[in-house]
Amino acid sequence: MRSITTGLLALCLALATAVPTRADHWPSFRGPSASGVNEDGATATTWDVPANKNVKWKTPVPGLGLSSPVIWADHLYVTTAVKEGEEQKLKVGLYGDIKPVEENDVMLWKVFCLDRSSGKVLWEQTAHRGVPKVKRHPKSSHANPTVATDGTHVVAFFGSEGLYCYDNDGKLLWKKDLGLLDSGYHVVPDAQWGFASSPVIHDAKVIVQCDVQNGSFLGVYEVTDGKEVWRAERHDFPTWSTPTVYAGLTGPVQVICNGFNEMAGYDFADGKRLWQLRKGGDIPVPTPVIDAKNDLIFLASAHGPQAPLFAVRPPARGEVTLADDKEQSDAVAWSKKRFGVYMQTPILYRDLLYGCRDNGVLMCLDPKTGKELYTKRLEGGVGFTASPVASDGKLYFTSEDGQVHVVKAGPTFQDVATNPLGEICMATPAISQGVLFFRTQAHVIAIAETRDKKEAGAAR
């Protein structure tokens, strides 16, 4: 009996460190446990930002940034890169020219803190001033990574411009220069596309995945002072994926990284690589997704000849292999060769797995078996880059031109509403206390069901 009690206590402690203690927090990219899900309130089904319908507040943010909003208690954090004296352009649509944007002017890399309830700017800090060390993709910005917070520390990552940690009042606690982090197309090295992987905080440690042209690595640092805990060399081409922490039922806590040559799990304690899977798409972007119920890790990518979706079992060890004519093995519960997605991270919601391609084709699968339940296109919208989020029985898919599709969760397709943001939107939204927070090209916008116009307030 004592051993059973001890085991249950250990499990509870592990789960407590894996997720925030309050449901209203959205502490990093894709929210609690990188799930994209928050069920702490009833969220809006319809709105119209140009008409100010169900708009709680709307706050302008200068410059250009594709980082997502992050929320802890009453604070909302977002980053941006401001080009002095000139507006930066952003391309929408399904790709085209891979040539990077030529920008040799001085820029300011900034962190903003807003009041979650009103949108009022509480503080802003300039982390760095200078000419960008790496160029950006026409669909990208110089402030792509989303901040991470544990309620005490606010960690912002600007790639080659450094890693910064602030307190809740905007005081700089520490900063680190991690060197030149050139994420670009490995086939055409001159096609610099900017850095995008976001930091993650787990158990008082900051985790960063830096897959670049030269010297790729996974690093872990103390959140209190930035001291390096360990660094693991990665043998991979540039990626734009944010790592995910697995703290589940089997084995040690792992840091899971997407990749082309090195989809892998690392021991959080010391950085030892536990397993590795190859055969990914050659420009990996989606973040790994954890299925706690079925104890699986989903890894997706879709560029080049490969567009795979893998369901890996966390006890996997060593080189994980999968024969060309096989869809499963001891380490891989199931896989789909053409069900991967390129830009968006898949989402697991109410026992179903959803993935949306850049062209709006939405797929729904059984996460335990990989069985396809439906494939439908979201009509309307020019390209889909932002990852979906979910709450209140609804999934939200945002197109680049600011059309948000609201899809009812379930094994049959129901597109219940399409709502305009009125601006370009490529950042993944956040959810807290029933409010949706969208970061558009020029604003942060709070969307909520309102009873009258007084509650909506005037757009800022």
Mean of residue pLDDT values: 90
> What would you give as the CATH superfamily?
YVTN repeat-like/Quinoprotein amine dehydrogenase
Poorly predicted runs are: 1-21, 452-460
> How many angstroms separate the termini?
60 Å
* Count of folded domains: 1
| Order of strands across the main sheet | 14-15-16-17-21
Could you tell me the CATH topology label.
Answer: Methylamine Dehydrogenase, Chain H
CATH class: Mainly Beta
Q: What Rg, in angstroms, do the CA atoms define?
A: 21 Å
The largest sheet is:
5 strands, mixed
CATH architecture: 7 Propeller
DSSP E strands, number: 33
Describe what this molecule looks like in 3D.
The protein is built from two helices and 33 strands. By secondary structure, it is mainly beta. The chain has one domain: Methylamine Dehydrogenase, Chain H (7 Propeller), CATH 2.130.10. The strands form eight sheets. A five-stranded mixed β-sheet has the order 14-15-16-17-21, with no helix packed on it. Residues 1-21 and 452-460 have low confidence and may be disordered.
Give the SSE layout.
Layout lengths: L1 H17 L36 E6 L9 E3 L2 E9 L23 E9 L5 E10 L17 E2 L3 E5 L5 E5 L4 E5 L23 E3 L2 E6 L6 E6 L5 E6 L10 E3 L7 E4 L5 E5 L5 E5 L11 E3 L4 E5 L8 E4 L5 E3 L11 E5 L10 E3 L2 E5 L4 E5 L6 E6 L11 E3 L2 E5 L4 E6 L6 E6 L9 E3 L2 E5 L3 E5 L5 H4 L4
